[in-house]
Amino acid sequence: MNFTILGATQGMGQALARLISSRGDALFLLGNDRQELESCARDLEARSGYPVAGMALCDLRQPKEFPLVLDEARSKLGRLDSVVVTAGIFHAQEAMEKESNLARDLLTIDFTNTILFCEEARKRLLEDGGGTLCVFSSVAGDRGRKPVILYGAAKAGLSNYLEGLDHKFRSRGLVTICVKPGFVKTGMTAGLKPPPFAGEPEPVARMVLSAIDSGKPQVYVPGVWRWVMFVIRLLPRFVMRRIGF
Amino acid sequence: MLSGWGRIFRPGHSVYAHDLEKASRQAVLFRGLGRSYGDSALPPASEPVVVATPLADKIRFFERETGLIRAEAGLSLHELNRLFLRQGWFVPVSPGTQFVTLGGMVAADVHGKNHHVDGCFGDHVESIKMRVADGRIIECSMDHETELFLATIGGMGLTGHVLEVEFRLRRVPTPWIWQETRRIGGIESFIGALKVAAGKWPFTVGWIDCLSRHRAMGRGILMCGRWATADEAPANPPPFLRSIAVPFVFPQIALNYWVVRLLNMVYYRVHGSRSKQGIVHPEKFFYPLDMVLEWNRIYGHRGFTQYQCVLPENGDCSITRNFFDLLTRLGCASFLCVIKDCGPEGRGMISFPMPGISVALDIPVRPGIQVTIDTLNKFVISAGGRIYLSKDSFMRPEHFRAMEPRLDSWMAVRQKWNPEGKIRSAQSVRLLGDLP
């Protein structure tokens, strides 16, 4: 099996790449910084002893490049088996409320462009006879919540898209997996205070990989978030309105 | 709020950095996994932010022929062992926990059960890449900027920020340990037994029941080990162990004198009088305390300190005996009391170990702890020994000066590379008079 990962240079993407590399599966890395990509590739090779199949620059701000980099990955790997998207950005809600450019930035990257990337990946996976598209959404998309209104909206849209994709194309061999991380301690959340149930990237990566292996369409990581969000989804509106969560 | 492993909290927080080169430009101090007990990895009050390195854990290269490895400072020993131990590679020197980073191992110049033959971790480091106070990035080694290199090994991160470390992993015949444990009846025989074992075993350490008195004073269990040979070791690699975590902070009285005394007695008695030997899991041998995550919570809300000193030997063990006498008189009840013979001083200009006997014990914080520590420090000074800065929260600057004749020459090098003490810690404020 081979994997193409967008966002492999940081956080959960990096942890996932390390895990995949350690079992000897072929890896194609996509990221937005040439130097980071190269140092990641060397890190993976040093850890696992297996070479990285290839890498290419890919920035979620530049949707025009998506077809090109995916074609490059496909030609290096022979065919695409699994495409994973862990990349995304986060801005604080207050900052985006003040500065609409930040809001546009987040909505464009986390919603529009992520979906455009998935569309390009979907086409190629289907051409190759199916495979797995695994995309990192967020628990923030499960319910409209005060601290993450815009981020949550983008992720809610993304989760919906992924569910639709899974319903439509699973019969044709394309498995779509929506990963919903709760709080995970990575570079993206480095400035925030970890809440209860905060997870580490490494166990999260293990759960995601086993979901990919078994074709589970939706996975909450760490697992406890499945139950946390179950409760949150059940809360009536008047309660959600009052609490700060 | 932020604390060392001893859970004595101070104002401050840590910011995790992915890119150490970027984060080091303005940083006052780097912090690894926060396993130093005291205030070594805590920021000064006026600049209360430390840069936490554990996210920067990329390996730059690993030569599978020679074992030469270079990695970012945030790489943990736990990760190194997970990746390479089962392939037959191990660090030349390992401390008693694997939850430490390479940067921390250099800064504290950690020692381990093989100090009597292999010295400290810093004795095996080939090269260090660091950011110094004037903003330059310097690669230092025995051939280049040697002074900075030697002052950084054991320099508690005060000469500059460690960005990358290069050293050599060692080939081990199997990833399993052959261990022999034996009960020892008192302090004199313990020191004698450590000396004899040092000639035969690469790894030795002792646990001491420091509440036993009179003739039984210093009784305990001696643990010796070596890497198992291929025909002794099980065919399978050692399994990845599951650990449990202490779920909450214990009440202050949980580990009182009588509880500790009982635990110590049980631990000593359960071993039995005959020596035991056999194959053990390497992680159980090197890192027994890592099996219980967050074990520092057992000392309650006020936290604790660890007191570790090394005492020179004078032939008749009287210094160590007097030290244990003093401990008993001060009522230092500790479940964890570790004794180890140290080999020669290493290359680190201000590293802790020196030839003699090292004793480490936990002391819960309580009223009067400053007096206790002062008394112990005065004893160590008069004996010509010294204490381990990575464990310390309470030492007075005048005591540090008195026990550290090497301080002036180290300070001269630090002065050269970090002239205004821009890079500093809560500990350096306390001990070296840096700007608070």
CATH homology-level superfamily of chain A: NAD(P)-binding Rossmann-like Domain
Number of β-strand runs of chain B: 20
Under the CATH scheme, which class of the largest domain in chain B?
A: Alpha Beta
CATH architecture of chain A: 3-Layer(aba) Sandwich
How many extended strands of chain A?
A: 7
Concise structural overview:
Chain A is of the alpha/beta class and 245 residues long.
Give an overview of the whole structure.
The complex is a heterodimer of chains A (245) and B (436). Chain A is of the alpha/beta class and 245 residues long. Helix content of chain A is 51%, strand content 15%. In chain A, β5, α6 (149-169) and β6 form a beta-alpha-beta unit. The radius of gyration of chain A is 17 Å and the shape is globular. The mean pLDDT of chain A is 94. In chain B, 52% of the residues are buried. With 436 residues, chain B is of the alpha+beta class. Chain B contains 13 helices and 20 strands. In chain B, α9 (318-330) packs antiparallel against α10 (369-383). In chain B, a hairpin with a 5-residue loop joins β7 and β8 (137-141). In chain B, the strands form 5 sheets. An 8-stranded antiparallel sheet of chain B has the order 15-11-13-12-18-19-17-20, sandwiched between helices. Chain B has a 5-stranded antiparallel sheet with strand order 4-5-9-7-8. A 3-stranded parallel sheet of chain B has the order 1-3-2, with no helix packed on it. Chain B folds into 2 domains: 13-172 and 405-432, Uridine Diphospho-n-acetylenolpyruvylglucosamine Reductase, domain 3; 177-397, 3-Layer(aba) Sandwich (Vanillyl-alcohol Oxidase, Chain A, domain 3), CATH 3.40.462.10. Chains A and B meet through α2 of A and β4 of B.
